[in-house]
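Researcher: Going back to the complex we discussed earlier. I've cleaned up the inputs and rechecked each line, so this should be the final set. Can you rerun the prediction on the complete assembly and write out the structure?
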Amino acid sequence: MNKHLLSINDLTAEDVLRILDTAESFREVGTRVIKKVPALRGRTVVNLFYENSTRTRISFELAAKRLSADVINFTTSGTSVAKGESLKDTALTLQAMGADAIVIRHASSGAPLTLTRWVRGSVLNAGDGTHEHPTQALLDLYTMRDRLGRLEGLRVAIVGDVLHSRVARSLSFGLVKMGAEVTLVGPPTLIPPEAPTWGVAVSYDLEAVLPKLDVCYLLRIQRERQRQRFFPSLREYSRLYGLTRERVGMLPEGCLIMHPGPMNRGVEIESDVADLPQAVMEEQVTNGIAIRMALLYLLLGGKAEGVGGDA
Amino acid sequence: MSATRILDEDEIRRAVTRIAHEIVERNHGAEDVVLVGIANRGDDLARRLAREIERIEGQAPPVGVLDITFYRDDIGMRAEAPEVHETRIDVDITGRVVVLVDDVLYTGRTIRAAMDALVDLGRPRAIQLAVLVDRGHRELPIRADSVGKNVPTRRDEVVRVCLRELDGEDAVYVEEPAGEPGGSA
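Model: Rerun complete. Updated structure for the full complex:
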């Protein structure tokens, strides 16, 4: 495995399986009374979040703490970043403090890659612009394998604003890598024109796709996209692409409903549907901690490079 | 590399039977006993011991498997993070006698890690240790309560335990490294 995790495409199918298998052991740790193991004692993990994301940050924070690493949360408001410090200077500061890993969320695609040029430790991409969100994709793959027993041959629809969604990109790449069949579903304005080159199918008709699915994966619709004229109204979006009770009836039995959160109940998913037993959003959250523990362990459990001289 | 077999199938079977008797004797029965095998192979031995104890006492003690990877003292000293296995102990170990089971006792560092892992899972009344082979060279003040066979070895030799469940045969070999004696393995 690479020293960094920037994109799902940095990983081989074998790497993905190793991460999922390692996460399996870490999920057991989460069921103990003492949910902590000393595996990364003395290591320092920095959460560097240029965009607000309480869920992802907390998940990484909990993952690092359960491995006994020290965690520093570096958010942009009220810090040197708000005073105009550049990404490079922030990186060099964290480096000088001996960070072994930097978990970065940034509005600009490619910021994590840029960061790797300045720091010696591992860089984990926690979402960059409209590029990728690899840890979300891995926790989704884990949840699907856990619930359905396999990834190969699974029929998965990813529904919604694929164009702006780093989750959709990472998840598509990951699913295709593991041999699943992916269909992107949404209004034509929200499906990226290059999507067919990812090895996925595209459909504009949700109801035609529903009966042939093992997983129905819904993306969050960001309200500002309507102002940017990607679709006429939220109501029209829900009418055509929202997962309603009625549409759930068209899904085969045992089909999972997934969502990366936070959900807009009543927009991409009807409120009742989000509470059905086949909707596994809470499992996704729990599994997210195990996946992030596995990644931190696999990236930092080897020889220490972040501290001391150039290795 | 030359290999000498130091235990064959029958000898392993007799050693397991004797250790099972020792566990029952030491604990005046097996009522409070939980057998916890250290992955890999320790868990297979623990299951065999449980079957023997069932034969002797009429009831098999619970068996768990423990992975000690997260508790190793050499994390960060190896090039790659060591592979992780499953930990599964379905009973509460608090107040019970945990018998740790492993194939080979060597430096004692694995057992040290296993004890740390156990106390994170509960507070056993006592922890005991049963091993198939004790090859010496301890680096920590740890000893086994039951030993299948004491085997004097050199540090550069390798003790290889084969069990039917994983390796298709029951045998223990001591392997000499290739090249002149004393060379690093």
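Model: Worth noting: Chain B is about 30% helix and 25% strand.
Researcher: Good, that matches what I expected from the previous run.
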